[in-house]
Amino acid sequence: MKQILVVIIFIVTFGCKSDKKAQKILTANEIINKSIEVSGGNKFKNSKINFDFRDRMYFSHRNKGEFTLARIMVDQNNDSIIDILSNNDFERKTKNNENVFVEDSMAGKYRVSVNSVHYFSTLPYGLNDKAVNKTLLKSEQIKGKDYYKVKVTFNQEGGGEDYEDVFVYWIDRELFKVNYIAYSYNEEDGVGMRFREAYNERYINGLRFVDYNNYKAEDASIQLENLGKTFEANQLKLLSKIELKNVNVDLINN
Fold this sequence. Notes:
- The chain is built from 4 helices and 14 strands.
- It starts with a helix and ends with a strand.
- The chain has one domain (about 35-250): Clam (outer membrane lipoprotein receptor (LolB), chain A), CATH 2.50.20.
- By secondary structure, it is α+β, with helices and mostly antiparallel strands.
- It has helices at about 1-20, 30-40, 105-120, 225-230, and strands at about 45-55, 55-65, 65-75, 80-85, 90-95, 100, 130-140, 145-155, 165-170, 180-185, 190-205, 205-215, 235-240, 245-250.
- The strands form 2 sheets. Strands 6-5-4-3-2-1-14 form a 7-stranded antiparallel β-sheet, with helices on one face. A 7-stranded antiparallel β-sheet has the order 7-8-9-10-11-12-13.
- It is globular.
């Protein structure tokens, strides 16, 4: 009888420990860290990436905390304009490396435009910056799959010119990949929300890239955090596709 009792106590104790381990609740930071890791992790920090997006070429160079983000445009006269955003500042040059004067008001718009494309191209990399605030929301199912749901806001200091934007990320609970993104924006030409569905996943030199279906909610009263369920109910309007073409990655070995 004593032996049976010992076995029962062992099974109950071991089972409780296993359940606790299986049910360990991850923090928003831990979820984002895992998502960054499966998407390429520290390889992003020391890399050269270039791709084409909507008839423009984008190039990034990241190395030991220093970065250069560039956009190259070719006009009707086959002249090239290069917008360059770096740790230091923003500048516009010609293909002959001549500086082009840009009014401060326009420089801000160009800076945001360049940064936005590069920002989305490497997500979730960048979500561990000091100005980023992460909040874990209630988990959710979309199309039968379980997702962590993480809300991201930004501090004004270090958060860029769009620090008031709010993002929500749906991260696969098993694979820790970002499959859906919702964000709100407040710009001179209006305010609004967008919902993006990732597709065409590919790994290039160990870095994960995806394209997006870009949706809009026609009902302005819908809350940002509810766009996932609104998408599942087929109540969002497809606006465009965000497609990165000719992606190339070179890793920098230090």
